[in-house]
Design goal:
Its main location: cytoplasm. The protein is 39% helix and 26% strand. The protein has three helices and three strands. It is globular and about 35 Å long.
Length: 77
């Protein structure tokens, strides 16, 4: 999943080398923490959060078949 998130986000941003995805796993959920350069935050979130919602939709559907835990993406500022 980490690689999937990076593959989706890196082409969207101006500073792809600063894209970081960290994994935080608990007993019943998995949280992927996405951080990008401050200048790229708007590109990752998109107008009214449309890009962020699309990224979450793709990752959630891929994770539902892969993991048996609830999966979340947290975009860090």
């Amino acid at each position: 999943m980490k690689q999937l998130i990076e593959t989706i986000v890196k082409p969207l941003v101006d500073y792809p080398e600063e894209v970081r995805v960290e994994l935080d796993e608990n007993a019943n959920r998995i949280v992927y923490k996405l951080s990008v350069n401050a200048e790229d935050m708007g590109k990752v979130i998109g107008k009214q959060g449309r890009v962020a919602k699309a990224i979450r939709t793709i990752v959630y559907s891929a994770a539902s078949s892969h993991h048996k835990k609830k999966t979340y993406i947290d975009i860090q500022d």
